[in-house]
Design goal:
Layout lengths: L7 H8 L4 E7 L1 H4 L10 H12 L5 E7 L5 H12 L6 E5 L2 H5 L4 H17 L3 E5 L13 H14 L4 E2 L1 H10 L5 H4 L9 H19 L1 H4 L23
Parallel strand pairs: 1-2, 1-3, 3-4, 4-5
Helix pairs in contact: 3-10, 4-6, 6-7
Length: 238
């Protein structure tokens, strides 16, 4: 699991043993809806994973997920709630609520680009996290186009994206898991298993960017060849 775009601020901080603050910005699947407790959400799992891998750094992951928010709701929060915390990295999870509520794709794209520009102009690294897989997703008309739009935004702005939807769908279509095993009772939000996996996968990708030698000098595993983390399946555009 690796990213194919640089994270210079995060890399510099981790390699020089500086404190690292990561902000998880998003909606309900960042907040942790569907988890058995707040400690089971992915930002908590991510902090634990990274702290184990980089014991010489003080690593903090702030959970700024708010259930139900659109990208337009999160945009003003970047200036109000995110930038004052002076994070090294922001992981921005968005898209699912916009797609489900029929927000115009051009408006969504413009909002995300504006948010990325705001973060980068303040010297903050950005990672995009796309939507979770859930059975009803493929019945939403614009859902595939949202996934493609997020990939395109990441490519154009030279920032990493973790393609959560593709990963989850791959696990289901290859019969490794069922939707019931990966989702909460509402068959929409992730459950503890999926939140835990997401925390580990995100940590794997971030660690790969910095280099396995720094975190685990006794074990060297070559990164898997994938253009972006989660690039396991193509998503058709209808």
């Amino acid at each position: 699991m690796r990213f194919d775009a640089p994270l210079p601020k995060l890399t510099a901080a981790l390699t020089s043993n500086q404190p690292v603050r990561i902000i998880a910005l998003g909606s309900s699947s960042t907040q942790g809806i569907g988890a058995s407790s707040p400690k089971a959400c992915y930002p908590v799992k991510l902090q634990s994973e990274l702290q184990q891998r980089f014991p010489n750094n003080i690593i903090t992951v702030d959970n700024l997920g708010v259930g139900g928010q659109l990208a337009t709701d999160m945009l003003p929060r970047i200036k109000k709630d995110v930038i004052p915390r002076k994070p090294t990295l922001v992981i921005w999870q968005t898209g699912v609520n916009d797609a489900m509520r029929g927000v115009a794709l051009d408006k969504f794209r413009d909002t995300v680009v504006r948010g990325i520009d705001e973060l980068q102009s303040n010297g903050i690294d950005v990672v995009l996290l796309d939507m979770q897989y859930f059975p009803r997703a493929e019945k939403i008309r614009e859902f595939p186009r949202y996934l493609v739009a997020m990939r395109q935004i990441a490519q154009q702005h030279r920032i990493p994206i973790l393609q959560r939807f593709a990963i989850m769908k791959h696990l289901i279509t290859t019969a490794q898991f069922t939707p019931q095993q990966l989702l909460a009772a509402d068959q929409f939000h992730p459950n503890d298993l999926t939140y835990g996996c997401l925390g580990r996968m995100m940590a794997d990708a971030l660690q790969s960017e910095v280099g396995n030698v720094i975190a685990q000098p006794k074990k060297k595993y070559p990164p898997e060849t994938a253009k972006q983390a989660g690039a396991v399946a193509t998503i058709p555009v209808h």
